[in-house]
Amino acid sequence: MRRIVSDAALDALFRAAHSRYVWLDRPVGDTLLRALWELVKRAPTSGIARPARLVFVRSQAVKARLAPALPEAIRAGLTTAPVAAIVGHAIDLERPSAGLREGGMQAASLILAARALGLDCGPFWDFDGRIVDAAFFPEGTVASTVLCAIGYGDDTQPAPPEARPGCDETCPIL
Hints:
The chain is α+β, with helices and mostly antiparallel strands. The protein has seven helices and four strands. The protein has one domain: NADH Oxidase, CATH 3.40.109.10.
């Protein structure tokens, strides 16, 4: 089998990657966030040519506006991260689910791009989008899809075991 990327790249993107929710106190600078955007904006889309809508939040004061949108049990995983990213999608009144699917693809691209740049991620789907949208997309043309904590995970904190089923259990080949 011909490898397009190295085993080290596959490890960083997939094999050694897992969601992180405990963070080192190590900032993520503007240059790295701009490099992240440069990768995300080039990722595949469904062809409707809508760019990702990303908001990178580093300020504790601004993260405080995100906190009420999250269940208290998981809130610290986002608010203590060096960066909280809000992935939004354009609201399409004719095809409302299209924007949501596009936002999901762009969130996946954000996670892979962050991993490729040496960052760890912790995605959040369980949040109150009305609170996030009112605070960050008040114009009403964009809605939040995913929140994602970004930074450098604390390797001293064990990752939760993630049992994953095998191919034969979940992926029929027809």
